[in-house]
Amino acid sequence: MPLRQFWRPALRLLWSAVGLAVGELCVFALDVSLPLRYLAASAHILVIGLAFLTRSTGLVYATAATATAATIGATWLKISGDAMLLVSLVVFNRSLIVLLIFVRVVAGTAFQRRARRLAKERMLAAKVDRILQGMPIIVWTAGRDGTLEFINDVSTRHSGSSATTLIGQRWRDVIHPEDLDRWATLWHEAIEASEPQELEARIRCRDGAYRFFLITAWPECAPDGSVLKWWGTAMDIHETRKLRREAQRVAEAHERILQSIGDGVSEMDRNFILTFVSDRGAAIVGKKRSEIEGMSVWEAFPQLHGGEVEDMLRAALATGRSQSFTTHNPVLSRWFEVTASPTDHGLTVVFRNVTETHEQAEQLHTAQRLESVGQLTGGIAHDFNNLLTVVLGGADAVREGGQLDAGDDEMLGLVAQAAERGAELTASLLTFARRMPLAARPVDLNAEVRGVISLIERTIGSAISVRLVLADGLPNALVDPTRFESAILNLAINARDAMPDGGSLAIETARVDVDDEYSARDPELAAGPYIVTSVADSGTGIEPAIRNQLFDPFFTTKAAGHGSGLGLAMVWGFAKQSGGHVSVYSEVGLGTTFRIFLPVSYEEASTPAPAAPEDAGVGTGHVLVAEDDPLVLDYATSQLRARGYQVTGAASGPEALAALEGIPHLDLLFTDVIMTAGMTGRDLANEVTRLRPGTAVLYTSGYPADVLTTDGRLDSGVDLLPKPYTARALAARLARLLAATSEQ
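Below the sequence we write its predicted structure tokens.
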């Protein structure tokens, strides 16, 4: 039997003798780190050799010697899991041998897994090393005491030493001496706590300079919690720290600027979260910075949500344009002027408390409105008083004529009463308009209050108790006592109407020195000493919405027919014309207090001479009457002629001067103050007394304007008979003046 017939049994016998499967031979080669391709080639050569031995031993040597006897055509090897398939095509002596070997690994599985694991570990280690060396920061590991065990090559760029040179050193060897104590303390705490740590420290670099690094360390601990080693990083933050310090410096400068601004400043993001509020701003709104920073505007100030402020803030964000507006905060009872400007991050809002400015503007507006009303009132009062002079004087003259039945006399009495009420009305209007001349003199206000208290008690009734609190040692006040008493009586009547079910009324006097600060808050009240008379009631109080209208003429909250609305207007006009002020404080349900400020006078209080009784007797002398109203001129001249005076009438100043030329002796000039033709009564009087020295002058007017007054007070030496007047009052004043002139 040829040898080749025994090659298959011989192969099985050889493998059995070895005691291994074919796959184990491959695994063994793998275990000794032979590459798989060499393993496959070895197996292939072994198979071919075995095949060759089955043909001829002598030929084997010949083939080995010539290296041409056998040629491997192709080999294909596939290993999958624990199986291997090998296919070889062999051409030998023009014969084709196909080898197909399939081997399942039986005994080599553990070796195979170990080899694969080692290969993966080597690949992972190489990858990690590439990552660590490629990182831009220093990566290190150290023992428990901080001795470096590993450090990547980035350290060379900073230190100038190779990584291998640094291994074995400790961080404290390169840290700035000033940072060592802090480093030692932190390192000790880190070991004790076994927790990650972080420290900014200065590290020496290759040029000897120190740069700031952020050093972080994470502990690797044993099961008992003790530190075995440290893993960490070190990042160069020197430039970052410089930028951070510069940013901090800029931020501090920015805040100092914002804090130095007298207005309030706040910053908010696009969600209206307050990111910054200046100290001044927090004080303006009555809050602390810590209370509102970090809150939304609507949380800090709920009353602003859904109102004008929110609309304007949203408009600033939506349009990218600044919005300026003035708003009132009802909770704080303050007015604010606000400017909201868009920024990259949200809004910057600048606001200021303009309550005082707003109130001053309101006061100015009120004063201007009242001044306008006063101008109108003065003009009306002038003409109205001219008419009332004729009505009142005519009724009085008719009654003096006699021969009237009871009905006619009663009717004339009603006419006279109506005219007198009209005169009171115009007097109140002129007082409000500050056009009523005041006969101001030094007055003891305590004495004036005591003198009017009985009239007040009769007027307000017994259901209201009256209490006087009069300060001792008060200086005198410069005031028209008649107007003062009228003002106090008006305030008492106003208080009575506020207490329909009774109550209490307190009248108090005191000296108050108004300083510049108080005057700045109320520009209408000049700084200086004042005597203040307060009238306080326990009535219903005044609603805040109508307080700015209290002193308007004809404004009243009373029912129709229960007040003209001129009482408080007259008080206001009187106080202002006297160089003082009137203020009001009220709380709804608790009561109201009016305070009249009147200027102090250090002169002795004077008592005017008692007025001479009206004398309707026969007069003597020549009287020149100048009056531009023809009705009043006819009335005055006729009444004076009826009383025996020689009278010359003139409708203007120039006409009176022309008439003066035909009067040989003039005893008295009776002239209206405001006249047409470009000459006032004062101008006429000056010219007449220049031409006829010693001539007595009596002025009359329903509205003297500022012709005879200085600061609302009649000039010294001026005699004025206010319109409307009666014939008896006119005759009495003329008689007194002529008598005084003859005595001189």
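Residues 355-401 form the longest helix (47 residues).
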